[in-house]
Design goal:
It is a single chain. This protein is of the alpha+beta class and about 700 residues long. Helices cover about 60% and strands about 10% of the residues. α5 runs antiparallel to α6 and α6 packs antiparallel against α9. The protein is elongated and about 120 Å long. The relative contact order is 0.05.
Amino acid sequence: MVIDFSLISHSAAALAFSALAILVSSKYLRRNTDRALLMAATVSAVWACSLVAQLIWNQPPFFIRYLLELIRDAAWVAVLFALIRDSSRAGALATRLRRVLGSAIGLLIIVLLLSATLEYAQGWSILDGKTKIIGQIAVSLLGICLIEQIWRNSISFGRSSMKYLCIGIGGIFAYDFFMYADALLFGQISDSFWSARGAANAFFAPLFAVNVINTRKQPVDFQLSRNAVFHVGALIFAGGYLIFVALGGYYVRALGGAWGEALQVLFLTAFLALFAALLSSRRFRARLMIFISQNFFDYKYDYREEWLKMTQIFANLSEDPPLPERVVRVMADLVESNAGALWVKDEDNNYILQTAVNLPPPKYTMIDGSADMVSFFGKREWIIDLNEYHQDPVRYELLEIPDPILKFSDGWLIIPLYLGKDLYGICLIGSPYAKVELNWENFDLIRVVARQTCNVLAQADAQNRLSRAMQFEAVSKASAFLVHDLKTMIAQLSLLVRNAERHRNNPDFIDDMIRTTDHAVTKLTNLVDHIRRPATEELPVQAIELEAMIGELVDHHTRSQPNPIYKGLGESLWVKGDPEQLRSVLGHLIQNAQDATPPSGEVTLTLKKSPDHVVLFIQDTGSGMTEEFIKMKLFKPFESTKGLAGMGIGAYQAREYVRQLGGNIDVTSEPGLGSCFSVRLPLGRTQQRHDSRQEPPEKLAESG
């Protein structure tokens, strides 16, 4: 018994698309493309089953099979438009182009469906067989045109997520185009094309499965140097490949017997699709580029191309992608990689992770500034190969690599980033696409690019600091020196208003009111003059008796709940600074503690000293803060949790002024338990309180 190859071919298509539909429906229905692919796979499976049933039972009739084929074409076109919608944020086609192509394909399919329906229902022969074949050819060509436009207009970062989908749908439309073009030329559909059609469609089903499983992989933008040699080599390879495929197809036909022509068509289709997938493979292109560089050029890199490419990347002033991510991609691209991470030094000389590209970060990512590797980079500008390090640690003087780097599962190169002679950052590069042999040329280029990217990072950071300082200066000059005097005048005028009704006939009260009003006018005039002529950056410095100031602040803040509790030392503690500014700083911290604490809670002030410093602990039982909020927002200017009621400069201004005095402010907090602000100030001179009256502050300031 001779088995019909067409039956096997279309049965394979039915099974393949049924399996694809089951795969997509069970796991992957998050995107529009996945849902459209499920519909297309289901319709293709039904279409293939109808052809199998026709071969076995001569049913269903031609109209049903033709209708299913048109619906199948429409379903694959719907997949393409779903792909456009899903990739609209990453550089989609122009709206006009989508509208023209969509309207053309939709109108053509509708015309073919209506003509077939009228012919079946009413017997009207609107379109003859040759016109129907031309219509099928037009649908295939429009589908291929749409795929070409999608690929051309998509950004390279997103091509890997649509590569196999475009190859598969393009293969289906291309096969139909050749089959119907052959039928138009010879007046009938070729038995070989028709028999192999189901198997060819089944061959493309795994490509769709790979696409839906592999949607999260987004390789980096890969720019090729030595373009002329690369393209010539690619053309030579393509020519040799096609000659090999042609010879293989000839022998398949010669040895295939009754199935020879059909097997030849299937063989050619499979290898052409494989060729398209191979040419679009980034790994293959990377290997070919390395081979060309090693065998045809004295240098691995075209330095002009590399420098122009890097300049173009950094010339982008937008934050998409962010600058740290661009730095990682530039460094990784030098060694055929697409993964990496970047650490940059912070104010405490530790190294904070800025970004991780295609590498899942570990739980702890901060590199201590005193780590052995940081000291090593301070002495030697080496690039550490982790593969060599694991094989022979002695080569790197038994260097201890920090855990935040070793915990990255796919790390390869550790590159120091220097700003002048100082280590500014650390870049980790992931494993490459293809095996890369590193030599002096690689390391020299990496060092040069590392220094250049470090300069870009430092410049961007300096610009951010300058912008922040200018914003703060503008606000500070308008408000920082006004708050205390304004509050004093408000209190004085409020007291006058409250007592005016009672003492309006008292001449002494009237005289006092006039003096107070005159004083307020004078103060307001001085404030206006201060705004017009801002004070210099250097604030006046004098000796301040800290315990007395804290006592006055505690008395002042007893007007609000909860009342602050002060635990002093019972002795004079002198510090240097501007009294009004220091009073404003400490008052702000006390007020914040009261604002964060319910009336039934506690706000405690404790003063302690060491031989050189005095520390004021302001502790509350309020709502507390998270560690992330303390690190990222608490001391960041213009970041306020009070909405329009706050300017977001109080905590930042307090810490900056205390640092100007040579001290610091530290914070510990736990959400739901409370917070503790530690204000550390350099100590000028201490003595017993009764002795402090014998020596004036001016003399203490001179002696301090």
